[in-house]
Amino acid sequence: MKNTKKLIAISAASVTGIVIASFLAVAWILSSNIMHPTFVCSEEHFIYCGDPSQLNLSFEDISIQVGDGHTLSGWYIPAEASDKAVIFIHGHGADRHEGMRWFKAVHQAGFNILAFDLRNQGKSAKSFSTMGYFEKRDVIRALDYLQQQKQIESIGIFGTSMGAATSIMAMVDDSRIAAGVFEAGWANLDDLYSEIIEQHMGLPSYPLLPLTTWMLEQRTGMEMAKLNPEDMLADIAPRPVFIIHCSGDNLIGFSHGERNYAAAKKPKEFWKSPCQMHARAWQSDPEYIEQRVTNYFTKYL
Predict the structure, then answer these.
(1) What angle is formed at CA 130 by the lines to CA 125 and CA 134, rounded to 5 degrees?
(2) HSE-CB of 70 using CA atoms within 13 angstroms
(3) pLDDT score of 69
(4) Could you tell me which residues are beta bridge partners of residue 63?
(5) Which residues, 6 or more positions from 99, have their beta carbon under 8 angstroms from its beta carbon?
(6) What does the alpha-carbon distance between residue 123 and residue 110 come to, in Å, rounded to a whole number?
């Protein structure tokens, strides 16, 4: 009997050890995928995968130095006799091409355009991604570049997905951003990861989410609790915000857009886009949303 109990105890301990090891392994994989996303430009999503000449726009290849030693690669598209500009900030696992579908309308409305690859994305310096925590510094340096190198006086920002969260954080910290458009951004990153783990992976969010969060923070120095736009949006006022979200967003659910809009103070705008895929607002009605976005920037910049 004693031997049987001992074997059962050993077996239970072994199973527990295997379960713990499995959760740790999955958490390591998840944190690695967040830190080092892969990207291949898809015309289905980004529409354009060339450079701005594909839109008959003249441009400059530029480099921006970030204070922590990173070099960012980007494009500057000048608009004649304009001291106003819009910065485009792409999402996780994307690059500057994500904003290209908006370039022509924004440029024709009289705005210079700056689009660049965030750290560890596209052609910028390789390091690791932090879901906006350190990428916010990239946006601040882009503001410096526009003012110091291009003598731009009025600056707006357009962020998509992770780029929306990054842009919101930058706008809270830097009053030089006069107006922001935020498409397909999350409201709370823990909530988003919990939804992805449970709905897309079919796994329990506990203890997988706390383990993944701990690993991310240990490996990168980021603080997950500081990556929740709904906690910050009210601080942007009285500068305006424009929230855009697909009604059927299959990655960052529509409720995140609703929560962000509710958290923001006036002046604010919202568009519930009739799209069923993540960050596809432009594809759902290009003429309508181009007009709204350009009118918005024209009004506030």
Answers:
(1) 70
(2) 25
(3) 77
(4) 73
(5) 88, 89, 90, 115, 158, 160
(6) 27
In what helix (H) or strand (E) does residue 255 lie, and over which residues does it extend?
A: helix 254-263
Which DSSP state fits 67?
T
Domain boundaries, the chain: 1-35+199-224, 44-188+228-300
Residue 265 three-state SS = coil
Do 187 and 260 contact (CB within 8 A), yes or no? yes
119: alpha, beta or left? (left if phi > 0; alpha if psi -120 to 50):
beta
CB atoms within 10 A of CB 25: 11
Q: At 242, give phi and psi (nearest 5°).
A: -130, 110
Structure tokens at 130: 């932090």
- CA torsion through residues 279, 175, 133, 60, sign: positive
pLDDT tens digits, residue range 230-244?
999 999 999 999 999
Residue 6 has pLDDT above 60, yes or no: no
CATH class entry, domain 44-188+228-300: alpha beta
d(CA 82, CA 265): 29
